[in-house]
Amino acid sequence: LRYGSTWEQDWDRLGIDSWVAAIVYATGWTIAVLLQGLYRVRARYSLRAEAIALLRAGFILGLAVITLLFLYQISNASRLLVAALIAATVGVGLVSRLALRTALNSFRRSGRMTRFVLVAGAGPVAQDFADRLERHTDLGLKVLGHLRSPADEAFTPTRSVLGSIDDIERILH
Which of 23, 50, 103, 163 is most buried, judging by how many CB atoms fall within 10 Å of its CB? Predict the structure, then answer.
């Protein structure tokens, strides 16, 4: 719009197939996000940390695009378009991750997508650990009970003791 032509004409003028450019851009974004560790499964990844990592990925991608434009001597490509495209990519990435996070939290709070935990130990430390797991419903973990160790004989937890650590094979079956 800035130069009074359509985007197809701009790509043709630059001598670049728009589909190839889109695939290279998408691949670059995927690599930048991968480098920031955002494809690893993490139970407690804060939204703030995720946003910062997405901004870093956008910076990496922007630097790569500007470098490619310089190396291939494409001086008539709009730097404003590159900046807007990267800002939009980061924005869409953040919104989609927020939506996914919200959906997962909703599923987990309703009891779906839950994994079960058996806590080894029935003492105060084990009880505190189990309580903390139960408070963080967004983790999707449900404590089934405790396995008593010889050191825990004097303590009675509020959750059920399913047996001793020696009984683990039977309990797991």
Answer: 50
pTM above 0.70, yes or no: no
The number of CA neighbours under 13 Å toward the Cβ of 96 is 8
Q: Which one, of 126, 131, 133, 111, lies nearest residue 165 by Cα? A: 126
- Token digits of residue 173: 């079956």
User: Using only C-alpha atoms, what is the Rg of the chain?
Assistant: 26
Give me the residue label for tokens 């043709």. 12
Residue 83: partners with Cβ closer than 8 Å, 6 or more residues away:
62
Output the 3-class SS for 111-167: CCCCEEEEEECCCHHHHHHHHHHHHCHHHCEEEEEEEECHHHCCCCCCCCEEEEHHH
Q: Report pLDDT digits (tens) over 94-149.
A: 999 999 888 988 888 787 888 889 998 888 888 999 999 888 877 788 899 999 88
Are 145 and 127 in contact by the 8 Å Cβ rule? The answer is no
Report how far residue 25's alpha carbon sits from residue 19's, in angstroms, rounded to the nearest whole number.
10
| φ, ψ at 136 (rounded to 5°) | -95, 80
Locate 25 and state its tokens.
């851009």
